[in-house]
Structures are given as structure tokens and as C-alpha cells.
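agent> call fold_tool(seq_1)
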Amino acid sequence: MSIEHYLAPINPDIFGFHPTETAVTLGSHIDTYFDTFPGIPESGIVLLGVGEDRGAENNAGCAKAPDEIRRCLYSLANPCEETRITDLGNLIEGQTADDTYYALAEVAAEVLSHNNTIIVLGGSQDLTFALYKAYANLNRIINISTIDARFDLENDDLITSRTWLRNIIMSNPNYLFFHSNIGYQTYFVGQPYIQLMDDLKFDAYRLGEVQHDMERAEALIRNADLLSVDLSAVRQSDAPANGNPMPHGFYGEELCQMMRYAGMSDKTHCLGIFELNPLYDNRHQTANMTAQALWYFIEGFYNRKDDNPLIHPENCKHYIVRMEDEGTDINFHKSKISDRWWMEVPCHNEQLQILYTDQLMLPCTYSDYQQAMRGELPQSWWRYYTRLNKQ
């Protein structure tokens, strides 16, 4: 399949400098679609700009973000000698938002089918729905994590930046297995939606919980095939470029830390950065912060450890914890390479066990192991177990 007809080349004048002028810059290690289409690599990082904001809630103008982020990203220092990135340019806007979703799903599916990791520079967060459809096109069951102050579960069949998650959950057939929200703020969510997330057996952690325990964020992100970031989850003082600015939220340094977690995750092959609106940016502050966060993702990507116990059990120490009250054992695995933890979640249906093979090893933290040693069942294990065995 040729995806070139969906894509437009980048005008090099946006940079104010030629991105290959200096060997130490990241831009000199990016094969960019200027005049000649670079093609799709194998097992690399692929950048794609998507300037679509017709589904944005109170944030029209975020369609201009992709080139703003590029300008800052290309000028950063190259994180490592192995860096090789392909920039496919910008997706051509469809006649309708649905046309854009369709095109993005087609392009992303083709990129993912070549074992690449795709970074989408948005645009509004409803584009996450199209990235989900890319996995659906490939018949892949996925987990989605979001860094977001809201749940985006509003009840509307129209896909917007506030309804896209509901539309994914309601899709039939459905390829979403698990969802995690990182950093929600209760006054934007409300108890009915918190209860709904609990009923669905999805993970949701408040902003303060995550800031107090960033290892929890690492485990949630490590479990994600697709990570969707709403930049309004970063506090306005660090990221003013949004029509829905937040006085409270993550610090820029915390976003960078989570992006490195995502880069180092062997499972995460799709990252979307959304809702940056250049109309509100103060001296490119948010664009620079976003570029630096992406730099950490790239640096993490080239430090992946390939230590998943499902693939390399020989690289792990194994622990069995007997849960007397539950009448079950939990098998924990600790990587000898990275010191990261996983716990096995059994599936009692043989057909589902085959279907959800990649979901049977749940990333966790040392505190989950300690909790189990005290005889307490980790909540994340229970939610996962329930979803696996009540499909």
C-alpha cells in the first residue's frame, strides 16, 4: 500500500536554518520529507504531523502545532549516535474530520506494520480515536494510557477531544483491552465518571497520587501500546499554549520523566502529543517544552532493555507470593537488567488466553510486591484479572 498520497512535504523555511547544517543537532539525524518521500523504515521512529482541530473543544488553532514542535525539536542536540528518525511530513487535512481520521488510521497502520514506533504531532486529542482505529485495522488488541486531567468520556456520538474515549469503548468489534488515566483532576471529572472507570475496571490515578509516586506512572505507561498526551495536563505556568489552561497539573520536568518512561517501554509503539495551541504560546515556551519531552522519549527509545519476562524469562528473578485469603498465587518477575517489576495475571479461558497472550504480564512496582507480601491483593492485579476473566 502506498501512503504517500495522504502526506504533504515540509517546507524547510519553517526552521529558519537548514536542519542538516550541524551534525550535533537532532535534525541532522532525521530523514525528512522535503522534496523526496523517504519511504517507511523498518523498526525505527517515525514522526508524523497531523494538523486537525475540528474536534477540539475550545482550542481551535492547535492545528498549527506540528511545525511549531518540529522547529524546536530539530534544533536540539542529538541524544545518541544511533539516532535514526524518519519524518513523513504532514497528513493532508481531509474534507471532513472523519476523512482525516480515516487517513491517519491508514498511515499509522502501515507505519506500525513495519515494526516502527510512530510519534504523532497533533492537532487535537480526538486523533487518538484514529490511532486506535489503526490498531483495529491490524486486528491488534491494545492498551491505551492517557496523561490527561479529564477522562474524555462525555456522552456524544460525535467524536471530539472530550468524547473520543467513549467512542473507542463503544466501538464494535472492540480492540481496547485496558485503559489507564494518569493525572486526572477530580473537579474536572466528577464522581459519576470516576465510578464508571471503576465499573469498567480501568486504572485512574489522581494528579497528586502520581506526583507522589512516579513509579506508578512508569508502570502504567510501560503497559501502554498507545500513549495519548493532552498537554493541558501540564500546568499553565509551564505550558500556557492551550485554550483550556490549567492552574494545576504536572510540571514540565514530570512530563519529560514520563516521556522517558514511554520511550523505554518495549511495548509502547505509538505516542500522540495533542492540544498545543501556538496562538496562546508565550515565546514558544510550550513548543520548546514539548520538544524537550519528545527528546526524552527518543533518548529512552534508544535505551530500551528488551527485558519483558514473556519474551526473556531468563533475564528475570521470579517470586511466588501466596495470597491465603484469595486462595491464589501471584507470580512476580523482577528484571536483572533494569530492576523493573511485572506480575502474572492468569486467564482461565483457553481461547481468551491465546487472544490476550500479550496482556498476561502486567507491569507493576516494587510496592505492589510488598503489598502482596503483606497479604493484600494489589488493586491493579484485581482489575486486570477481572477484565481477563469476564470477557
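agent> call fold_tool(seq_2)
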Amino acid sequence: MDFRTPEQMGISSRHVLNFYKELDYWHLSTHAVILSRGNHFFSECYYAPFHKDFQHRMYSTSKSFVSIAIGFAEEEGLLSLDDPLCKFFPEYKHLNQHKTTIREMLQMRTSMDASGTGWFKARTEDRAAYYFAKNPQKHAGTAFYYDSTGSFMLGSVVEQVTGMPFLDYLKKKVLNGIGFSKDSTCLKCPGGHSWGDSGVLCTARDLWLFARFVLNGGTWEGKRYLNEKYVKDATTPSTPTNPYGFGDMHDLQGYGYQFWGAPRGCFATLGMGNQVSFCDPAHDFIFVINSDNQGNSNAYEQIFRALYHNIIDHLGDPLPEYPEALAELNEYLATRKLFTLYESPTSPMSAKISGKTFLCDESESGIKWFRLDFEGDEGKLTYENAQGEKCMTFGFGHNVFEKFPEEGYSDLVGSVRCPGNYYNAAFSADWPAEDTLRVRVQIIDKYFANLSMLFCFRDENTVTLRMEKKAEDFLDEYKGLVNAKAK
């Protein structure tokens, strides 16, 4: 990879700037962006504190990595796409007969519906065994339903036939050869298999390398690693995904083998929170974004519309250099930071409540009491819950970066508590109304999440705390309503 100006790549710096500004207009929580044509980057931006070496959780983009691993295993003769899943797990045949083929699982035509198997709630000790213990919910090979558990099982198939973690297998087959980070990894699931449907951690540049390899049809710098037929089949929609025929741009175009179709013959990998690699064969264009917009149901639509309107619609032949526009673009990108709540003047309420202790009614959160203290452009929330006394510091108009105070959430193994583990987080706040304090927490670690805490005051002595969280399998102590009164 190397760097060129947008104009050299056939687009104005002004259009690129407008693209970034549109992302920011929607208050998206963007972490990293790469724009390229061929092997040339024409824009790369990291929203501080993110940086080019950050190993970002890719969530369901991991599924596309699993698909390519399946392709290599098929090419080696280790499996056939027409093999039934149960062939690779004979020890579970007594539990259930899962006759879904590998091809049908790649197409999300599994025997499970969209709810999957609910393994987080079950706290199972072996996710593969739990999958087979569930009764099929529909005929295999029929309707599309987004089944993450099926993607996990595909990764487990790769590990069964190769005898190694699926990402290690991919590194051996291709990733090491194209410059993928040696320290990239994948989280594990209970039972020992890789969390192949959600757990890949790698850099934004790594994701670009993977997308470039796929857009190349399985080659890199003239060397063929994977047969072109599998890559073509994987990235060509073969399964309808939208029952109505209208809706979001990202789910209207159909599904291949763990790859999504996109408008105008494009395809993409998509992960929760908006982990995207987007490939446009007609323009030899790749777009990568890492972010965490959990809770924003419109985020994919906002990102894709910004991409098509500002970038894809304007890609063409090289343009004359435009130094002024390029300087303006670079100046804008140099100031990008992680989303923070909007700077707002201190509410008159803050002086009335600062330092007061509020005693809480019984609630599902288990918060017993809390106190808010304000000083300058920062505030502090001190509270007590089942784990004891805790504290969060938040900024007005800026993020405060510190550990989220809840202890013991999962680390390297999903849904398994890890004593002593704390997640990195960013804390900001604003006053959207004189009687309402809003605190936004962004978890930015191996696991990502958004937490909203709204302190809604009836008067200086009476408050309802409303908490909402968007997180895969944690923050359950931080949701619901808490009524409290001053001590």
C-alpha cells in the first residue's frame, strides 16, 4: 500500500472532506476510516485515541474471514460444501441431526431462526454442544435468517479439519503472505473453539488487506492463493435477505457466503457497531470503517448514503491537483477525535445538586445511592452497587478516559467472567435540558458498548435515573429506571 492524493485517484479532496463531514454530522462514533483505489490509499484517518496499530474488534466481519477459511479447506479437499454439518461432529449425533450443509450454512440458510441458540443467556460450558442440543426451527436450505451461531459452527468445522484455530489456519494459507498483523487474534468461546462469528481482533489496515485480497479474486501481487471460483461465489449474492424489497441499502442486495451484497455490484463485510470493508469492483475501490454505533439503527444507512453520494458517485479519472482543498481536508482530519456529547453551558441545577447524596429505591440495577459533583468542565458520579462503591469521571465537551468501574466482565473467552478485568472507556456529559443531565459511556476495549445515563430531576431533591445500554453480553447492571431522593 502507498499514499496518493484524492485527485490522483480520481476524486476531489472536497468530496472526501464532505464525506467525513457527513459522518460527523450524524454524530457517528467513528474510530478509523480508509479510502483506496487499487493498492493506493487516498485517505486514512483515526479518531483519537484510536490509531493505526489498534487491534479493533471486528464483530460479524469475522464471519467473512471464516468463509475464506472454508474456501481454503475445500480447496485442500478437507471438506465439501455439500457435506452436512453433523459429519464433522459425530460425538453430537445423539443430541440432534443437523443435516444443514456447509454451503447452506455459508448462505445463512441454516435450520435456526434469527434468535439463534441464545448461548449468552444459557451460559453454556460448550457452545458447540449447545448448538446441537437445540431443535431445528425451520427447514435447512430454505429461508434466510441471520444466524451467528451457524457462522460460529463453520469456524469450528475449519478447526476440526485443520487441527488449528481458524485464524492461524488463515495466517498460514494467506494472511502472513499479504502482511497481516502477526499479533492479530480471535477471542474464544466456552468449549475451546474460536469465536469465529464475532471475535476477530485486527487493525483497520489488516481489514483492508483482507478486503484487497478478496477484491483481487484470491490473488496477491500476482500470486494465486485461493481459487477464483470460490471467491466469486462467496461475494456474489445468492440468497434474498429482504422480504419486502425495500429498506436499508445494506440488506437489500442479498447474501453470498458470509458476505453481503451492496448496490451497483458491490459487496461488503459488516460487523456490529459498523465494522465494514466495502468493495466496489467497477472502480477498484475499497472503503474500511471501524466504529461503534450500537444503538443507532440508522447508522448503516447514514454511512452508505454518505459513501455513495460523496465518494462512489464521483470516482473517475485523475484530476488536477487542488492544494487548497487537500490542505483543508488534512487539517480537518488532524482534529478528529472520538465522539463526545455536545458542550453545553452548566445548568442552574448543577449548583443545587452538586455534592448531594441521593438514596435510591430498590431497582434491577442494584444501585443503592449516588452523588454528583461538578468542578469546571468535568463532573464525577460516585455510587454504590452490589460490587461496592464506584466512581466515574466525565467531561463536558470532551471525553475522560479511564477504566469502567464494573469488575469481572469477559476477557479472552466470551460470556465467561474474568475476575480483576476492567474495560477501557470514555466518559462525557451534557445538559440537554436544564433539568436533565446526560452521561454517555463508550466502552472501547476488546468489547465495545454504549451506555446512556439520564438523570432527570423533578426538583433538586427528586430524580429518576434512566439507563440504557447497547452491549453484547454485559452492562446488565446498568439498565432500567432508578428513583431516588436527596438524603
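agent> summarizing second result for user.
DSSP finds twelve helices and 22 strands in the chain. The longest helix spans residues 148-162.
agent> awaiting next instruction.
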